[in-house]
Amino acid sequence: MQQVMGSEGSSVVVPRNFRLLEELERGEKGIGDGTVSYGMDDADDVYMQSWTGTIIGPPNTVHEGRIYQLKLFCGKDYPEKAPGVRFQTRINMSCVDRETGLVEPSLFPMLADWQREYTMEDLLTQLKKEMMSPQNRKLAQPPEGNEGGRVNQKGLMLKCCIL
Amino acid sequence: MGAEGESIVSGGSIGGVEEVTVNIRCSNGSKFSVRTILSSMVGAFKALLAQNCDVPAEQQRLIYKGRILKDDQTLDSYGLQANHTIHMVRGSAPAGSSPAAATTNTGNPTITPSVALGGGSNEGGGFGGNGLGASLYPGLGFGALGGTGASGLLGAGLPEFEQVQQQLTQNPNMMREIMNMPAIQNLMNNPDLMRSMMMNNPQMREIIDRNPELAHILNDPGILRQTLEAARNPELMREMMRNTDRAMSNIESSPEGFNMLRRMYENVQEPFLNATTMGGGIGNDVGSNPFAALLGNHVGGAQTTDGSNSPSTTGSETTTAATAPNANPLPNPWSGTGGGSQANTTTRSNPTGDAGAPGIGGLAGLALPELGNTFGMLDPSVMSQILQNPAISQMMQSLFSNPQYMNQILGSNPQLRSMLDLNPQLREMMQNPEILRQLTSPETMQQMMALQQPLAQLNRQQSTGEPAQTGGTTGTQNNMGLELLMNMFGGLGAGGLTVPNTPDVPPEELYATQLSQLQEMGFFDTQENIRALRATSGNVHAAVERLLGNPNQ
């Protein structure tokens, strides 16, 4: 009986929405190692595509005490395919495009070899580990104090409209 | 069990606002819980947390769902619910030592030029500088520095000044953010966006409601695009302006034509101005004389001495101060082809004081308020002579390229200074020679002139049409309004300059998203799609209409 259950469990594929709801709950409840945080941008988005993540700079690196904000985009084929990850806070890091903040999948193995078991939390944690790596922990960083330095166009438009 | 839990919760409720438990997770791994109401402000919540941990409220940085909580928001605005977890990080002490921290500090306006320069070139790069330049231009000549600055940034200069001013003075970060955005370029390039911006201004909407013809103009992406295109291209601009001039003189020569022009001025221009200046936050500054006097003294005053001796001192300063050499030789921006052709057109329409018009147009680019003073007082021929003098243009240039001198001017006016103190960013802008250099480039000048000259003409016609004909009183009043409009257009002109590269973008790239949308709708002919998108400046709906063979819609 148990064996049957086990084999069934491994063959059952968790649908996208359940998976994302699970991740949403973990993010809200703060389950995990507590150094990354993430949540959905718009609670009304039925497709649960746009997410915001935060990485707290790991200690004993140049990133210590900094808070890095990221945008994660889960396409319709998540978790089969990796989400798009983009740093909103400016960061100097080997796998991150300096201008756009995009995490280059080719330079970040976790994105390149994405497995459906990986979660956004894993992704953020891995990025945090990457910050602690020898090539990144001492890289000079742009001055702090420009969270949201990269504002997407929609935000800009809104802002201008408000003005 | 369940009932018990419920009773606890309801026991904690006060007047329908329930207290909930929120978990706090510190970056060092420790955890604790607090009870709070979700409608409380983040700032108050931090104070509550400070009682429960050793991190003072001002050092707390709270993160929930990947977002950093801001003090002036409520907890439930972030969607916080019972038993959710907020992460807390101990931030650095408020008195940061980094240059970025120094520049963000509003309370401390003593920013050395070097810091300002570093901050300016750090993020926005060349583009940021350009954007600033656009805003500085009208701002410099005019009282409402913050407001007009922003309008320059926004290109058309149509948002409400009051709000802009308030936002910017209260929140220098916002200004900085706007400047740092490379996306501003896209904004300038997207007539659709511009239109939505205009439509979002309630006063603008009112004007449009009252004047359907105007609505047509603003709703026509083609015209908007043309305007932007023109702002970008000085040649085109001159061409357009000449056409307008000609049309104007034609109208004028027909019976009742002049009155029509005047009515147009009253019906359209004035509400326009009202929309842009309505209840300006620093109301007294609108067209106030201190500024006119300021620049009139420094610029105009020096000019009336014919600029023979005074430029020599400033000129020598330039050689040391102009670290970024002007790529374009700038002997005399006002005697260029633009000025010449304009002088011709004005002669036709109004023989009196024609020499003054281009001169005023050109000067207005540099010191708009002076217009108000000089218009009635200064002899036009003297004016044009002054402006034809290369020494003057040199002096102007040196004035703008020398940060110290600029500072001196800015510092000598108390009102201006207080404004700068409120806006450290503005000060940075003023102190950046790169920006100033861009401002004084001949292209910018000519654009400004081309834009302002017909306006000056219109205004002159208006003032001569007044029955009193005193020119001194009515004229200056009109000039007040004219200055505003000129600022607006000045912003447009300079704003257009900030996107010099974009016309080179291939349409496939420019309209990539729209193209894919059209593809999805089943329009597979890419070339046809591009043509339609071009004609509608990227408006997908209009493009579809067009593709369906209904080009008028």
UniProtKB/TrEMBL annotation, chain A:
Coiled coil: none annotated. Residues 15-163 form the UBC core domain. It holds the Pfam family UQ_con. Heterodimer with UBC35 or UBC36. This is UBC core domain-containing protein. The lineage of its organism: Eukaryota, Viridiplantae, Streptophyta, Embryophyta, Tracheophyta.
TrEMBL record, chain B:
Residues 342-352 have a biased composition (Polar residues). One of its GO terms (molecular function) is polyubiquitin modification-dependent protein binding. Residues 506-550 form the UBA domain. InterPro entries: STI1_HS-bd, UBA, UBA-like_sf, Ubiquilin, Ubiquitin-like_dom, Ubiquitin-like_domsf. Residues 91-116, 310-329 have a biased composition (Low complexity). Residues 91-119, 297-358 are annotated as: Disordered. Residues 20-89 form the Ubiquitin-like domain. Pfam families: UBA, ubiquitin, UBQLN1. Gene3D superfamilies: 1.10.260.100, DNA helicase RuvA subunit, C-terminal domain, Phosphatidylinositol 3-kinase Catalytic Subunit, Chain A, domain 1. GO terms for cellular component: nucleus. PANTHER family: FI07626P-RELATED, UBIQUILIN. This is Ubiquilin.
